[in-house]
Amino acid sequence: MKALAISLLLMISVMQVNAGVLTSDKRKPREVNKEQTLKNALDKQVSRHIYYPSQEESMEGKADVMLQMMPEGDVQVVLIQTANPLMKKFIERQAKKMKVDKQDAVAGQIFRYRIVFIAKN
Fold this sequence. Notes:
Distance between the termini: 14 Å
Strand order of the largest sheet: 1-4-2-3
Oligomer: single chain
């Protein structure tokens, strides 16, 4: 099992699109820093929880995922687009485990990620 896990390659291409990216550049530096802090915190959670699950042999494919921040720092899945139902179920299950510090959370903010699972033969 360990050999299988070692032989698998996980590529996560993280793309984040913030709902406020196209807003005016006149935002206060503090607001920008809070957005960046939240993005960094969520990126860490995605990297920690969304990984190639070695127990699933047919877990290959791409998924476009939209995650929304909740007031207490919880992460809610808004949308998962993928052709692989196992991948969708896995991402939904793992997203429930994600949580950021509620001081960093900006309720309602949406982030987009592209997740790519590739099994290395």
